[in-house]
Amino acid sequence: MSEEVWPAGGSVAVVPSGVRSQEAGKPGAQDTALRSRMSEEQTGQSEGSSQAGGVTVSDIQELIRRKEEIEAQIKANYDVLESQKGVGMSEPLVDCEGYPRSDVDLYQVRTARHNIVCLQNDHKAVMKQVEEALHQLHARDKEKQARDMAEAHKEAMSRNLDQSEGLSPPQAFAKVNSISPGSPASIAGLQVDDEIVEFGSVNTQNFQSLHNIGNVVQHSEGKPLNVTVIRRGEKHQLRLVPTRWAGKGLLGCNIIPLQR
């Protein structure tokens, strides 16, 4: 088999591609390991995803494609040497008398040997780039996992806090200490010793004095108010309608502030 190999820019000129050679570092085993690591890095990542200044899975795939091209070129150049009486990389190119061998194409042999040396250096450089890119991608993935875990922990803590707050009764700010029979308060279901945690728009956060409740009552005559009370440790929702009745005021009950 006769194939021409032309030097290009002092580096390589490619002859027909073929199966990669063992001299390229047993690429079959390398490819298996690399593709296994690539599969791990691709989990949970989009192939086109990227970060500023970072590598992507696509970048690594491109490096592997270049590596495979170099291995194919190395194989093609070794095929040239094999076609020239199997001279290989170290067989002498002179006969026993010191004259150039006439049974081989010296130009093809020298060119193929030069190409192989250059290609093997290129192969080492690409393999180093692949390893560095994999390390960067793996480190970035670990950082993302750490951020995700921290965020999940924060959400879990917030959820637990919300649940614990939901289990404990809300803080009361006032208490009912008397109720007149037949009054709007009595009709609504209020009882003596009910602790008020919400009275219309008034709650624990904005309560300052009984004037707050008085203002709500004055502006809500004839309108239903949502009232939440704690009665013997249980929360009750009531609807109280401030109304003029036979007794004093619009409620017919007495409310006092709670001192906590």
UniProtKB/TrEMBL annotation:
Positions with biased composition (Low complexity): 7-19, 41-54
Entry's Gene Ontology BP terms: proteasome regulatory particle assembly
Gene3D superfamilies, alphabetized: 2.30.42.10, 6.10.140.1710
Domain PDZ: 163-233
Alphabetical keyword list: Chaperone, Proteasome
Any GO CC annotation of this UniProt entry: proteasome complex
Coiled-coil region list: none
Highest taxon of the lineage: Eukaryota
Chain positions covered by the region annotation Disordered: 1-56
Assembly mode: Interacts with PSMC3. Part of a transient complex (modulator) containing PSMD9, PSMC6 and PSMC3 formed during the assembly of the 26S proteasome.
PANTHER family named among the record's database cross-references: 26S PROTEASOME NON-ATPASE REGULATORY SUBUNIT 9
Function in brief: Acts as a chaperone during the assembly of the 26S proteasome, specifically of the base subcomplex of the PA700/19S regulatory complex (RC). During the base subcomplex assembly is part of an intermediate PSMD9:PSMC6:PSMC3 module, also known as modulator trimer complex; PSMD9 is released during the further base assembly process.
Family the UniProt entry places it in: Belongs to the proteasome subunit p27 family.
Protein known as: 26S proteasome non-ATPase regulatory subunit 9
Organismal lineage: Eukaryota, Metazoa, Chordata, Craniata, Vertebrata
